[in-house]
UniProtKB/TrEMBL annotation:
Protein name as it appears in the record: Ectoine/hydroxyectoine ABC transporter ATP-binding protein EhuA
Gene that this sequence comes from: ehuA
Domain ABC transporter, residue spans: 18-263
UniProt key word Nucleotide-binding: yes
Signal peptide stretch: none
Cellular location(s): Cell membrane
InterPro entries: AAA+_ATPase, ABC_ATPase_HisP-typ, ABC_transporter-like_ATP-bd, ABC_transporter-like_CS, Ectoine_EhuA, MetN_ABC_transporter-like, P-loop_NTPase
Family membership noted in the UniProt record: Belongs to the ABC transporter superfamily.
Main location: membrane
Pfam families noted in UniProt: ABC_tran
Amino acid sequence: MPDTENETVPGGTDVPALRFENVVKKFGENVVLNDLNFDVRKGERVTLIGPSGSGKTTILRLVMTLEELTGGFIYVDGKPLTHELRDGRRVERRPKDVAKMTTMIGMVFQQFNLFPNMSVLENITEAPVHVLGKSKEEADRRARELLDLVGLGDKADAHPTRLSGGQQQRVAIARALAMDPEILLLDEVTSALDPELVGEVLTVLRDIARNTDITMLIVTHEMQFAAEVSNRVLMFDGGRIIEEASPDVMFSDPKQQRTKDFLQAVL
């Protein structure tokens, strides 16, 4: 474990994109995550599955610093995210250091969270200009590239309220990618969509998984999607990992009875 903000976790070139080390998260007396330990390698696509309330979304929110760690450490590219060891004590990092770390991470939420008073293009360019300091011209050019990528090149001047749910979620994906993140978090990105719109969003995400080396940490109940894009699947229950395997093993021959019961219910 690093003692200063400049040190990294051991591993040299094998330093993971994400490391969870003895992570604890409580809401009051309710322990949501208890002594959680796992890594996500650079370029790896890891999917978290399990029943509602098992802590999956909380993990993503901790990485985005939308929730505060109760205990333990999260490392991003080997560097402590929100807490570090200093003189043998666990201490919070400075807010500006945390903010710098979070620019490496993008997240797509269940709800699209687009600004209704802004055009699609403005929604995508707002953060790159004001957070990353990109010029408006550079941000606009990249936004239009991403809109083409998600199949919405003709919607740059539209407002979100004039788009379908599936189109809005594709804009949200483009917005996350506009920050050029090294890590992309996906939180049940199809759960708010009508069933007929799910396919268009998953197609975009499959293309991103296939054609980029971006690290992905995914929470989904779309098991076919998980099977297609994941390198590894982790089964959560009660705030802990009870099984992990490659998709072909997890979905065809899980070892734990709890995993078998869950998959039988959702497949």
